[in-house]
Structures are given as C-alpha cells and as structure tokens.
Protein: Auxin transporter protein 1
Amino acid sequence: MLAQKQAEEAIVSTFDSAENGGKETAGNAEEPPILSVKNMLWHGGSAWDAWFSCASNQVAQVLLTLPYSFSQLGMLSGIIFQVFYGLVGSWTAYLISVLYIEYRMRKEKQGHSFKNHVIQRTWTYIFGACCATTVFIPSFHNYRIWSVLGLGMTTYTAWYLTIAALVHGQAEEVQHSGPKKLVLYFTGATNILYTFGGHAVTVEIMHAMWKPQKFKYIYLAATLYVFTLTIPSASAVYWAFGDQLLNHSNAFSLLPKSSWRDAAVILMLIHQFITFGFACTPLYFVWEKVIGMHDTKSICLRALARLPVVIPIWFLAIIFPFFGPINSAVGALLVSFTVYIIPALAHMLTYRKATARQNAAEKPPPFMPSWTAMYAMNTFVVIWVFVVGFGFGGWASVTNFVKQVDTFGLFAKCYQCKPPVPPLSSHH
Structure:
C-alpha cells in the first residue's frame, strides 16, 4: 500500500515503480516538518507555497493600471479581456508545467537525480529595504513568507481601490466613452495580456516544489483568486472616474489623499521589492552558472556574484519607469512570445511524434478529450496572441508610447507629471 502511494506521487509512476521498487523517487524530496518557526517561514515547497507565489506576483503594480486599461477598452471589454487572458494564461502555464514534468521524466530515465538539488537547499537570508537585497535570497524555495505577505499587500490594495472608489462616488459630469479609438483599444487589451503573463517564472516555482506534479492546476486557482481583486477594483475605479483615467495611468492619482491610500502606496512599494526578487531570480541562476558560482554554499559569495545582474537592472529602472504605456509595449513585444506563444509551440513540437504522445508523462487533461483538441487549442493561442497581442497590440502600444515618449524623461523625478508652472514675472 505504501509503495503504491509513493509510486502515485512520483513524477512518472510507471517508470519509477518499476525501477525503484516503490521507493521514494528522485523527483520527490521529502517535505520538511513545519514544526519550527524557521521551517514555517523560510522552507517553502508545498502546493500552497506555489499558489501564494503565483497569486502574489501575478498582478503586482499592474493592479494600479487596470482602471486605465478599462478607460481605453470600456467596462464590458475590460472584463471580457481579463477573463479571457486569465484563462489563456492559465492554459499556457499548464503547458509549461506539463513540459517540465516531461523534462524531469526524461532526465530521470537518464539517471539524473533531482533529490537535494541546489534549489532545494535552504539558507537564512537577510531582509532589507531595497531591491538589491534580493541577492541574498537563494532560490524560490525561500520565498514563503514574502509570498504570503505579498498576497496580503495586493489584496489590501485591490479592496482599498474598490471601496475608496465606491465611497467617493462618481465624479462630476463623469463620462464613460470608451472605446474611442483602435489604438487605445488594443493598448488596453495588451496591458491586460501583460497583466496575466506573470507565469514567466513557472518553471522556477515548480522546481522549488517537493512534488511539482501538483502544480498543474495551481496557476488556474491563483488566477481565479486574482479575478476577485482585479475585476472589482478596475470596475469600481472606472465607474467612479470614467474618461479621466485616460490621462491617469496610476489609479492612486485620482483617489483622495488619506491614511488608507498612504498605506496602500507603501504596501505597493514594499511589494515591488518582492516582485523584483521573483523576476530577477532566474537571471541570478543563469549568471551564477555562467561564472561557476551556482553550487557555492556561501550565501555571501553568491550575493556578491549576483550584484553585476541586479545593479544594471536597477539603473535601467531609474532611467525608464516601467509603468502604463511602457507596460503595454513590453507586453506586446516580449510577453506575448515568452509566456504565450513559445509554450504553446514548444508543447506541439515536443509531442509531434506518435511515440512521444504514447510515452508522455502527462496525458491530455480530462476537459481536453484528445491530442487533436490539445493541438487545436494551442494553435488558437498562437494565432490569436500573434495577431491580436503582438500584431495589433504591438502597433497600438508602440504608437501610444511614441505619442507619450516626451512625458517620460530620463531620470525623471516625477513620472509623467505636469511641468511646474513658471513664476509670474514681476513688472517694475
């Protein structure tokens, strides 16, 4: 009975049962006991940890620009695109998880062991008040407490936006004329595509899990929770301020100053540190492997090795604030490929042969009756995102970006703020 249970939990039960005689597989490192405070806070690799990681980093700062997207799209289109791209993003995240499990299976057949791999080691790490301190966080395995706090921060901010907008009520002579222009329409749609394209770190999150096979539907569950944050907040703010949002890409700028708003601003700033760490960790790994430091046990040496990665990124972020129109351009030109098109194409290429489909570690899910249906779905995703996301979205986002490029400035003290009014010259 025990052998059967262990085999079912393996990445590839049939292979591992036969080869290992029901013993624990290499792909399943034992879950550490969560009795100590250290394990409860730092040592995360469960399905819940993966859910918190996905949910807390899926929207982040983009939460503040979704009302701006609604003003470009209109209320109905805004909600439809959120649901649509949320589900498409969940589908491609599912494909990434399937490809990762396939990779694990093939590597294990070659005798490669994933037990006690580098990403599952745990060190104590240092929390600081700036993004650069993420060099001290060894891997996604050590983000448990920050994922939980991050989700709390986005949840607070989303419901603050919702309640504050409803309490404020509709602005005087408010208008909801969106969508007005195709450029604005596709810019808004692309910003939502970018919003739900936060699964670029899916593989790293799975790699940090004790049982990565459980990840298959975690991203969808995280997306469903995120819907409860994004749809009410964007709808409420757009209802309250309407077309004013076309000139205010940050929802905070229209809400009255209060201690509640100040708290939301501070929480979003703190959350940015966490998001920065999530986004940079894969780059840290690549850089460490290039210079031969990935297996080093000293966290201080690894932190020093990561500085050449984090400092240039930080410098670029100071030069160009990635917000509003810049987000849309990044979403159309980069995210459309990295987290939508490439996973769908990779899945089709991986299982293009009949033998690959027969020996697949993961068969089509229950809601997808056949491989033909899988290919049809993947083809739809590739064509849609390439034409609508990259094509029309790229055109609209770049056009909108060019129109506003003069408002960005290099090393701007205030992002897209109106220039100060010159003092009136005194007449003598």
